[in-house]
Amino acid sequence: MGRFRDALARDGLSAIAEIKRRSPSAGDLRPGADPAAIAPAYERAGAAAVSVLVDERFGGTWDDLRAARRTASLPLVAKGFFSSAEHLRTARDAGADAALLILRDLDDTACASLMQTAATLGLDTLVEAHDADELDRAVALGAAVIGINARDLTTFRIDRAAQLALVAQAPSDRIVVAESGVHSRAQGAAAELAGADAILVGSALMQAPDPAAKLAELISRPLVKVCGLTREEDVAAAAEAGADLAGFVLVPESPRAADEVLGVPDTMLSVAVWVGEAGDSPSDLDQVHETAAGKVRGRDAAVLRAGRQVATHLDLPWEEEDPAHWDRAAGHGGRILLAGRLGPDNVAEAIRRVAPWGVDASSKLEAAPGIKDHAKVRAYVEAARSAA
Question: Full-prediction pTM beyond 0.85?
Answer without folding.
Answer: yes
